[in-house]
Specification:
Elements lengths: L1 H9 L5 E5 L3 H15 L8 E5 L5 H8 L9 E6 L9 H6 L7 E7 L7 H9 L1 E4 L5 H14 L3 E2 L1 H11 L3 H14 L5 E2 L1 H7 L4 H13 L3 H13 L1
Parallel strand pairs: 1-4, 1-5, 2-3, 3-4, 6-7
Helix pairs in contact: 10-11
Length: 231
């Protein structure tokens, strides 16, 4: 992430970026940062986006060879293409000699590091993996958000909040917004606030139920099972 921030800051933007991983919130943030740095807002002449696993490689290459229209760059965004998990010989070959004014941003949830596309981008561009964030990093991020809103939270309430939201940053962002609005006129967010407005994720209870089964705690496992049905 810092490498992308540095590229944007210095203006030394690579011609090919691959953003991938399970933390989709951060991927979207950095996808949009790169797009904003590379092409003017609303410039539909020099920005093209493609999504899905039925993208035509030849069409992409033809577009990449087209000179930008009254701009410095042509930017092509390709999302969830599957190019990094299957054979993609033509485009992989093209990425070794991209037209000077063309920039690619690839966004994928999963990649095969043995694929030709992955190896080509690694050698000719920049790859950034966005893994699930640690609880420590999430805590710092949440505290920064709350500080901007003039809110405080104790360690125990923070733990309660994360136990209900899980570690997905997109979900945390949505639940945090609800919490800030709910405690609008107060400086401190309480456990009661968290319980009142946050939505507990079913995945949390699934893990708890599996643990209860492993511990042969039948009553707890059944209680969690019925909680899941309710959720």
């Amino acid at each position: 992430m810092k490498t992308i921030d540095n590229d944007i800051k210095t203006g030394q933007l690579k011609q090919v970026y691959l953003l991938y991983g399970e933390e989709q919130y951060l991927i979207r943030q950095y996808r949009d940062k790169l797009k904003k740095a590379m092409v003017a807002e609303g410039d539909t002449m020099n920005f093209s986006s493609f999504e899905g696993n039925d993208i035509n490689q030849k069409e992409i290459i033809d577009l990449a060879e087209t000179l930008p229209f009254f701009a410095d760059r042509r930017v092509i965004l390709i999302e969830d293409s599957g190019f990094f998990k299957s054979s993609c010989e033509d485009l992989a070959e093209y990425l070794t000699q991209v037209a000077p004014a063309t920039h690619f941003i690839f966004v994928e949830e999963e990649v095969d590091k043995r694929s030709k596309m992955y190896k080509t981008v690694k050698n000719n561009g920049k790859i950034v993996e966005f893994s699930a964030q640690s609880e420590e990093l999430l805590t710092r991020w949440i505290l920064t958000r709350l500080k901007k809103e003039g809110k405080n939270i104790t360690g125990s309430v923070m733990q309660l909040f994360l136990s209900r939201t899980g570690t997905d940053m997109g979900n945390i962002d949505r639940e945090l917004e609800k919490l800030i609005c709910y405690a609008l006129d107060r400086d401190v967010i309480t456990a009661e606030d968290v319980m009142a407005v946050t939505t507990e994720q079913t995945t949390n209870k699934i893990f708890e139920m599996v643990n209860a089964i492993a511990e042969h705690n039948q009553r707890k496992a059944l209680d969690l099972y019925y909680d899941l049905l309710t959720l």
